[in-house]
Amino acid sequence: MIKSILKPFLAISFLLLIFSYSLQDLSLIYPSYFPKPIYDFKKNPLKSSTVQLGRKLFYDPILSRDHTISCSSCHLSNQAFSHAGNHLSKGIEDGIGDRNSPAIFNLAWQKTFMWDGSVVNIDVQALAPINHPKEMGEDINVAVRRINKSKEYKTLFYKSFGDSLATSERLMKALSQFQLTIVSANSKYDKVKQGKETFTQSEKNGYQLFKQKCSSCHQEPLFSTYEFANNGLSYNAELKDYGKWNKTFEPTDKMMFKIPSLRNLAFTYPYMHDGRFQTLYEVLEHYEKGIEKSPTLSKQLEKPIVFTTKEKEDLLAFLATLSDSVLVSNEEYQKTK
Asked: Where in this chain does the record put each Cytochrome c domain (predicted)?
């Protein structure tokens, strides 16, 4: 049974809700103003030993066919677990993936994964990049056999699961446990919510603009609904990417992509599913002048979103308060030495 307890978190001096689950020795820590996680920790209780196993696997290129690419190759901790500066993900043998690498934080509050939502369980999500021929290019069963030959991994799997046998299910669960612990909640915005800091006048103005024109898709405090929307992007003919439609072939899914969080935008450029925009100014220009009409276009975008030069400056000042320097410097999320 899930129990809720209230516990002071002295390092940042505000109350956090800590949810404890049976059979676990580790709790997911997040602010009291965050919603309850969607992920069911009863099915995969957090354990420190399993998180550490997942952390090692996340940084180990042993999961790729030629031992050159790890999960962290496209999700760098100092870039809010994105691949800043790269339009598309990069893989083995100079392969290029199909989409921009999404930042991976606050995953416990998400019910679907990937830009098209084709994965509905974080416990199996890693199969997609591992099996992708242009990313890690490996058969998961081959990777598991390789891991079972490692004395170090035998010890780690024993500590986590009670015996030393690596299986694809255990490997996936360990990876998901590590990723689930990556919580971004230490930005200036969060400190304002906690009463520790205050916004500048420009940030206050930007916050009001955000609430008026952006919050329907990017809801606080996660700054996304994590639903899907057609935000008026033109079709990328080179990638042949129609978003969800590529998987479902449903007309209502055409050009529907998962709404990303606005947290950590300073670390996660370029923007959109294909990384077409290098700057946030380009993003704002798109919503003012570049929206392409189509049957599935989000209703909120039927009219352009127009900002004055001053309003753009204020909005960007507010968005900058969503960047979490604690997240990108946290040694607990970095590669073990």
From this structure: 201-323
